[in-house]
Amino acid sequence: MNHGASSSHRLKSPQSGSACTDPTCCGLITAHHGVEVEVVFTTGKRRMVRVKRSSGHVVGDDVEVAGEMLRRLPRRTELRRRDGGGGIHLVAANLDVLGIVVALNSSPGFIDRAIVAARVAQLQPFVVVNKCDLDDTAALLADLHRIYADSLPVFAISAMDRTGLAPLQAFLNQGHRGVFVGSSGVGKSSLLNALCPEINLKVGKVSDHNGLGRHTTTVSTLHPLSGGGELVDTPGFRDFGLVDILAEELAIHFPGFEEHGEVSCRFRNCRHRTEPGCAITKLVESGQIPADRYAVYLKLLGEVEADQSEARSKGWKN
């Protein structure tokens, strides 16, 4: 899936098997402005098409355009998130990687929620530790390497100083289409500016009051990388709630548990809490899985079970 030099600025064409054969009407949504979207056609031409705010179209969607009619083609993947108010938002479509950007002021639990959401959505997660030019970040980086390095890629960078970017660029240049998520203030816009200098995103200052950055992006856009691959820039958000995640999926995808794949629980749908014959709880007792990581898992498990219970209750009422 690598891009050659000749295609470094060319956006991915609609996926094979999409049943779109006319290059004059087949395209890709590269920007969403609320009531209209920008479509880049396979011919290279661009056009704005009006849509309803509730149309459900997102950046990354492959589409067919006929006049003012927009037809969405089947998606390979989609990434959704739940905000602090319980609302569900579709972030982007047809992604294959999810970059989780963190810094000293990141929200607790954000990384694990995002990793599980990515894996359930069939995306490869990776962690980007930004602001590594700050001395205080060294301890954070060491801790994140301890927790996640055996589970997924971890990149240490300073977007402001443009240091440590080469390994991250090489990873993205493998033809990936990805998106960065992260609490406000971690430097997502600075990172995108470093990777895509031509887009020149506005960088918000961190608030002295609460340590959080101001949201600087209001329009979702897709950008090609010079060496291959694409990045979607989305409006910033301060949380990443799990959406429609089953307890059994959390038990499978929680980072750190997969390292012990050679052991198995007695029950296939084990939630790793009090079930007899649970391999995970035995590993916790023996110290092979740290107690603090198991505590994080149990907290997320409680959230997921509460969501499932609420969903069932709403279903019964309907």
From TrEMBL:
One of several proteins that assist in the late maturation steps of the functional core of the 30S ribosomal subunit. Helps release RbfA from mature subunits. May play a role in the assembly of ribosomal proteins into the subunit. Circularly permuted GTPase that catalyzes slow GTP hydrolysis, GTPase activity is stimulated by the 30S ribosomal subunit. It is found in: Cytoplasm. The gene is rsgA. CDD domains: YjeQ_EngC. GTP binds at N130, K131, C132, D133, G182, S183, S184, G185, V186, G187, K188, S189, S190. It comes from Oryzomonas rubra. GO terms for molecular function: GTP binding; GTPase activity; metal ion binding; rRNA binding. This is Small ribosomal subunit biogenesis GTPase RsgA. One of its GO terms (biological process) is ribosomal small subunit biogenesis. Belongs to the TRAFAC class YlqF/YawG GTPase family. RsgA subfamily. Binds 1 zinc ion per subunit. GO terms for cellular component: cytoplasm. Monomer. Associates with 30S ribosomal subunit, binds 16S rRNA. SUPFAM superfamilies: P-loop containing nucleoside triphosphate hydrolases. PANTHER family: SMALL RIBOSOMAL SUBUNIT BIOGENESIS GTPASE RSGA, SMALL RIBOSOMAL SUBUNIT BIOGENESIS GTPASE RSGA 1, MITOCHONDRIAL-RELATED. Its main location: cytoplasm. Residues 84-240 form the CP-type G domain. Zn(2+) binds at C265, C270, H272, C278. Keywords: Cytoplasm, GTP-binding, Hydrolase, Metal-binding, Nucleotide-binding, Ribosome biogenesis, RNA-binding, rRNA-binding, Zinc. Its cofactor is Zn(2+). It holds the Pfam family RsgA_GTPase.
